[in-house]
Amino acid sequence: MNRRHFLALGGASAVAPFGGRALFGQTTARPLPIPPLLDFMAGDERPIALDLLQSQHDFGTGVKSQTFGIGQSYLGPVIKAKSGHDLPFEITNQLDEVSTLHWHGLHIPGDVDGGPHQEIQPGQTWRPVLPVSQRASTNWFHSHTHGRTARQTHMGLAGVMHIEDDASLSADFPNGYGFDDFTLVLQDKQFDDLGRMTYGLTGDVLENGFQGDTLVVNGTVAPVHQMVPSGLVRLRLLNACNARFLKISLSDMQPLHLIASDGGFLASTVETDSIVMSPGERYEILLDMTNQDRIGLQVSLNGNEGQGDLFEGLWQGLWGTNNFVTAIILTRDPLRPGLQASMPNHLANLPVADPLPAVRKREFLLNMGDEADLAAIATSWGNLCGGGVGMGINGRPMKMDHVNFGVKRGQPEIWRIQSEEQLHPFHIHGCSFRILRQNDVPPPVYATGWKDMVSVQGGWSEVLVSFDHEATKTAPYMYHCHILEHEDCGMMGQFTVS
Ligand code: C2O
Ligand code: CU
Ligand code: CU
User: How far, in Å, CA of 119 to CA of 21, rounded?
Assistant: First the structure.
């Protein structure tokens, strides 16, 4: 039987969990939680108040777990903003530990980027105004507190931001939030025997990043289900795992139709069997629910296993043992008409990623630490890396008071990222870039658009990047591995833009 056939089409019967483990006696899929929408499309002048909270949350295991949330018990709202408007925020840290909130994917100056230099002390409020001016895209925000990013993000300090522009608003795309446009935050979790979320650092966890065995969608154990209108449906996917790569496909051998990557729309719709999403990556897909009753989005948690063939798998579709679980089941409501349109062909004018004008090439070698050191760090710091020094880039760990280099605004550069062996998802602040080549082959078509994440494994990846905003010495941008435990352990560096 083909692996994609486990999504049985069960007529009008109750929606059963397909492919997921029968966790904590779960027998039916839970409703998809729709994060509250904060709609700032009109360019509201009032600041958007977000509170970082200590809370408790039931992931669907029947008991409450200790969590952090942004204005709610776990994760944050979805913020919708229009490019060209300033977005004022009031972020209050109600935790009893220092925190930060970084706008991942936003092209904004370093002093409002929310990186490790913009700490918010307990009880304090941070008031950045974000000059949002980039193309339509799905972005996110999460804790970036040096040494605490992994744990704070895992506890729930993350949310999603949609940026729209005139083109995206006038296009024939579904954009009814919670109607035909859904945001799915995908994460892996580990629950103890009582159903409580657990997180603990060991040398091993530092080395591989935290990996849980249970998929949660918007803070609820998968599978979840959602009724959708008859027509086109848009899913905005975020891999918000600390460390896990996720392979995504549809049930019943249906191809995925991808319309956007991290930084905006692709040139045209890309049809493919499956994609691999690194931590931090976003992809948008369209489904045509005009003529089908039900479809399942499937996720394989095996993403980091058999790392030897990630890149092979990206190109040849042969990756891992494909142990898929169903993340979400979408069922058509035939009485609810949706957007009747065909899959869009042309989506955006994507300039050719031309390396010729690049003014320089920089090299980044990602260094894993020594295993014994990592085990010692895990023991001495408890569940924090404490601004760890176990890992580094180009032979040096991240140091808050050391800026690694400076870049000139508007000047394209080639960044070549190398890994000795392990798989790392590399991220750069303040920009979207284009992937040129990875281990000497071009990226898969779906990764040829605007990106702020690039994976590297046992070789190198090259990106073409330039920056439009300023980042000063006191508010530099970061570049780092987005395996959050690696980042906390020092696999990060900082740069200015002037
Ligand atoms: Cu998503 Cu520097 O982070
Ligand atoms: Cu970022
Ligand atoms: Cu890494």
Answer: 40
**Quick one: which H or E segment has residue 50?**
strand 48-57
Q: Which atom of ligand 1 is nearest to the CA of 478?
A: 2
pLDDT of residue 319: 38
- Both structure tokens of 166: 């005139």
Instruction: Return the half-sphere exposure (C-beta side, CA atoms, 13 A cut-off) of residue 178.
Output: 13
The alpha carbons of the chain give a radius of gyration, in whole angstroms, of: 21
pLDDT score, position 388: 67
Could you give the C-alpha distances from 208 to 80, 110, 375, 386, 397, in angstroms and in order? 34, 30, 12, 18, 18
Q: Helix (H, G, I), strand (E, B), or coil: what is residue 224?
A: strand
305: CB partners within 8 A, 6+ apart: 320, 321
Q: Name the residue with tokens 């936003």.
A: 106
Nearest partner of 487 among 375, 362, 397, judged by Cα? 397
pLDDT in tens, 426-454: 999 999 999 999 999 999 999 999 999 99
Contact 245, 261 (CB under 8 A): no
Cα 428 to ligand 1 centre (Å): 8
CB burial of residue 146 (10 Å; 0-12, 13-18, 19+): buried
Closest ligand 1 atom number to CA of residue 429 = 2
Q: Report the alpha-carbon distance of residue 430 to residue 25 in Å, rounded.
A: 44
**For residue range 322-378, what is the model confidence (pLDDT) as tens digits?**
578 899 999 999 999 999 999 999 999 999 999 999 999 999 999 998 877 888 888
Asked if residue 483 lies in contact with residue 278, where contact means CB atoms within 8 angstroms, the answer is no
Question: Hey, whose CA ends up nearest to atom 1 of ligand 1?
Answer: 104
Q: How far are the Cα atoms of 156, 186, 323 from residue 247, in angstroms, in the given order?
A: 22, 11, 10
Neighbours of ion ligand 2 (CB under 5 A): 104, 429
The neighbour count for residue 18, using CB atoms within 10 Å, is: 19
| Largest Cα–Cα separation, the chain | 61
Binding-site residues, ligand 1, Cβ < 6 A: 102, 104, 142, 144, 280, 427, 429, 478, 480, 482
Q: Give CA–CA dist 108/432, Å, rounded.
A: 11
101-110, 272-281, 314-323, 481-490: which has the minimum mean pLDDT? 314-323
Q: How many residues would you count in the chain?
A: 498
What are the beta bridge partners of residue 66?
A: 56
Other C-beta atoms closer than 10 Å to the C-beta of 169 total 12
Distances (CA, A) of 441 to 208, 267, 307: 26, 20, 18
Rounded CA gap, 223 and 226, in Å?
10
For tokens 């669907």, what's the residue? 60
AA letter at 154: H
CA of 481 to the centre of ligand 3 (A): 5
Q: Is the pTM of this model over 0.90?
A: yes
Ligand 1 atom at minimal distance to the Cα of residue 104: 1
